[in-house]
Every structure is written in C-alpha cells, then in structure tokens.
Amino acid sequence: MIRTICCIGAGYVGGPTMAVIADRCPNIQVTVVDLNQARIDAWNDPDLSKLPVYEPGLDVVVGRCRGRNLHFTTAVEAAIASADMVFLSVNTPTKTKGVGAGQASDLRWIEASARQVAACAQGHTIVVEKSTLPVRTAETVKVILSAAQGEVAGAGAPKTFAVLSNPEFLAEGTAIPDLENPDRVLIGGEDPASIEALASVYGHWVPQQRILRTNLWSSELSKLTANAFLAQRISSINSIAALCEATGADVQEVAHAIGADSRIGAKFLKAGPGFGGSCFQKDILNLVYLCGHYGLHDVAGYWQSVVELNSWQQHRIARLVVQRLFGTVTGKRIAVLGFAFKADTNDTREAPAIRICHDLLEEGAHLAIYDPKVPESQISSDLSSGEGSWQSVDSPAEAVAQADAVLILTEWSSFAELNWQQLAALMRKPAWLFDARSIADLVEARAAGLNVWCVGCGF
Ligand code: NAD
Ligand code: UGA
C-alpha cells in the first residue's frame, strides 16, 4: 500500500496533479519538491491567489490539503528517501543545441531526477514517469536506477526499483476538472504489483474501467500520439478556415456540420490563431524526431506538416493585419487583447500571441497589450527582441485608446462582453477589429462602425 508520495517538479503538472491526489487520498502523505525556491515559496504562500500556477479551482483544493497531507519543499533528498512512490514531473522541452536540436526532447532534467532517486531512495521505490517522454525513455530510467539497485542507504533496507509510465492528459485552464474526472488514466509497466499499487491510488476516485493498463512503450507513445492527434485537428480546421475566408464559407458552420458526424466528433474543431502551449509543438517535433530515428521519413514529414501549418497560420494572421491596414503598421497603435496561449491560464509558453506580436513589431507597430492574467514581466521576457515598441495595459479600454485596430488573440470570456460602441468611440478611424478567436460580438462591432475580420469567416 502506498503511504508516501514524492513528486519531483512543482510545475503546471506536478502541482495540480499532486494537489488532487492529496485531496482524494487523505491517507497518503504527498510531498512536491522543486529546485526552484521561488516556485516552492509561491506554492506555500498563505495568500492562495499567489500560487505560481493559475488554474480555476486549484486554490480551493490546495487550501484544503496544504499542511495536512500536501507539502511543498526544496528538501528533495529527504522527500525521496521517505517515499514509497516517486513521480518524475520535470520539464522536457525541445533541445536547442546538439544532436536532435529543434526536435528531440531535452532529457537532462529527467536524467538528473532519476539519478537523484537512485542516490536518495531507501527500500523499494516505485518510480513513475509523469513527464511526457520519448518512447523507450523508461529504458534509460531503469538503467540509471539499476546501477543503485541493492545499495543500502543509512539504516534502510536495500534499494529496489520498479518503473511505470503514467502520462498526464490534463489541459491547462481545466486541470482540476480534468484530474478529478479524467477520460482515462493510463499506466504502462512490467511489474503487475507496481501497476496495481498506482491503480489503487487513482482508484480512490477514478472508476476502474477508466484505468487503462498497457506495456511501458505503448503508454509512452500514447501520450505523444494523443497530443499529435489533437494538434492535427487544429491544423486541419485552420487550413479550412483559410479556404473559408477565400470562398465565402464560414468555418464555424463547417466545423458544426462535420462535427455532427459521430465518427469525427465536435471537439477540437475551433479555428483560431494556431495552437500554443508548452506541449503540442514540442511533442509533435519529438514524434518527428523519433520517426526519423527509426527511418520512417515519410511518417516524420506527415507530422512535421502539422507544425508547419500552425506556424503558417500565425504568420498569415499578422500579414493579414498589415494588409488590411493599408499595407503598413509602422507607427500605428494596435490593441492586442489576450496574450496567454488559451483562456483561464497565465501560461504564455508558445502562445500564438508571441509570434504574431513579433511579426507586427518587426513591421514597426506599437502594441498595447492587455491580458487579465499575464503580468508585464512575462510579456517582456516573451517579446525580448524585435523592432517597434509595446506596452502592457490594465484594461481593454486603455488598450484601444487611439488604436487603429484591435486584435483578439486569447478567448477570455470577458472579451465576449466587450461594449464595442464604447470601445470604437476611443479608436482612430477607420478602425479595425481582427478577431482571431471568434469570440467578439461582431454584429455590435460592425454597428459601432468597425471594419471586422474574423478567423474563417467568409465575405
Ligand atoms: P514546468 O516547467 O512547469 O515544471 C517543471 C518543474 O520541474 C520546474 O519547476 C523545475 O524547476 C522542476 N525541476 C526540473 N528538474 C528538477 C530536479 N532535478 N529536481 C527538482 N525539480 C526539478 O513543466 P510542466 O508544464 O509541469 O510539465 C512537466 C511535464 O509534464 C513535461 O514533460 C510536459 O510535457 C508534461 N505535461 C505538461 C502538461 C501541461 O499542461 N503543462 C500537461 C501534460 C503533460
Ligand atoms: C493539451 C492537451 O489538450 C492535453 O490533453 C495535454 O495533456 C496537454 O496538451 C499537454 O500535454 O501539455 P493544453 O495545451 O493545456 O492541453 O490546452 P488545449 O486545450 O489542448 O489547447 C492547446 C492549444 O490549442 C491552445 O492554444 C488552444 O487555444 C488551441 N486550440 C484548442 C484551438 O486552437 N482550437 C481548438 O479547438 C482547441
């Protein structure tokens, strides 16, 4: 029976995942560790609005368990030593240099945390890959752990290890409901007792039929495949959005019509400024690298095209803004509403806004950026280069004052409520609304005298 869990990595996955495990399993002590002192301090902040990850409902869950059976600390070694089960939930970004740069995952943090577990574990420890990893990474983790197998640390029993893969499928913005009511939990492994030990943790709240058991490699590959399929739908609908704009079809009507086919399904058919987030691009590039590694170059090319279409969509939107503003945005003020990669998160990793703003800055635009959750310091580190200038502002009204155009890049629900009569009155005429998320009230915007473009809307 599992009594103590340690999770290495207090990020967007480690923090919320362990909070829900602690909430649902009051008999298990859960300790989340990280090397980043500031992040741990934020997780321990008495003011729950200051948690380092913004997720609706997370503050309530953390408030219920923190100090009871949920702990955040930088004391990595002690937490590993006392754990029956250790989750590896560290970052696995795309490599920026060396072999596989631009495609392969950088596994240095996984290797470092596996080595830490090898060094500090006592007795039997089940090591769970929670990070998204290239298929066959468990082989590496096993080799690192087996080098310490049988060693005795202090007065403890000899070290033994089992390795499981348990990828996470939560989406940011809906992490808490996704964790509390998952479509499925996936556990890959070789040792039936370890698989059942992890299944019994989830069994506190997830029905058994939703806990899938596979071999290690199927589990690792299923995670990459799920993200690739989801991202592929977005590139597919965005490609059709461009065709809609050229032909007079409406992408929302097309998405509704095809989504009504139960074989296709209605979800993930929302055209927009392309997918962002820390994972879709990274995981597809990882898949591309793996396919190339195994000599499957046509398969690699197929998945590569999903990423290329995504970049194309982002550059297309920036180009379109410039074209509609009489071919130049130099010195023009453009209000950018939304900077996070999707609504209900403060995360800007790979946000479409970054690439689109970069393109507009290069054209010499002045951007007034408003996002309800992204602080100026984050925007500053994301837009570190490029010509032109930008400022972070505190409201949509401040953003649009004397602007030539408004560009909506994140689907924050408050943007559906904007009063276009009032906003249009503040803008320089002729003024434009570019709605890349099809969230604004376009009828009202047109009535207020704005020229309107909406992604995937025909004439
Ligand atoms: P993150 O960058 O937010 O968090 C990772 C944390 O690990 C960081 O705080 C870092 O300081 C810490 N860390 C790294 N090495 C460490 C070590 N040796 N010891 C202690 N701490 C260490 O990343 P994330 O978004 O939580 O993603 C983690 C993994 O989960 C990635 O593989 C990602 O692909 C996957 N994933 C992410 C999401 C998501 O929505 N963000 C969803 C599913 C899966
Ligand atoms: C995604 C997956 O949905 C999760 O299952 C997975 O666990 C996670 O990646 C991960 O591995 O990190 P996330 O990136 O948090 O979750 O958010 P999504 O809701 O998938 O949105 C990703 C991007 O696609 C966003 O930029 C969003 O705006 C965009 N998107 C999504 C669309 O443009 N259209 C859609 O129909 C859906």
Q: Low-confidence parts, pLDDT < 50 over ≥5 residues?
A: none
Major beta sheet summary = 8 strands, mixed
In whole angstroms, the N-to-C terminal distance is 63 Å
Q: Residue-averaged pLDDT, rounded?
A: 96
Structural class: alpha/beta
Helix content: 40-55%
- Count of extended strands: 14
List the strand order in the largest sheet. 3-2-1-4-5-6-7-8
Bound small molecules, by name, code or SMILES, are: nicotinamide-adenine-dinucleotide, uridine-5'-diphosphate-glucuronic acid
Strand content: 5-15%
Give the overall shape.
Answer: elongated
How is this structure best described in words?
The protein has helices at residues 14-24, 37-43, 58-65, 76-81, 108-120, 137-146, 175-180, 192-202, 216-247, 251-259, 280-293, 297-324, 352-362, 376-382, 396-400, 420-426, 442-447; strands at residues 4-8, 29-33, 70-73, 85-88, 124-129, 160-165, 185-189, 211-214, 333-337, 366-370, 389-392, 405-408, 432-435, 451-454. It has 459 residues and is of the alpha/beta class. α14 links the parallel β10 and β11. Bound molecules: nicotinamide-adenine-dinucleotide and uridine-5'-diphosphate-glucuronic acid. Nicotinamide-adenine-dinucleotide binds at residues 8-14, 33-36, 39, 76, 89-92, 109, 112-113, 116, 131-132, 168, 170, 172, 278-279. Nicotinamide-adenine-dinucleotide is lined by residues 8-14, 33-36, 39, 76, 89-92, 109, 112-113, 116, 131-132, 168, 170, 172, 278-279.
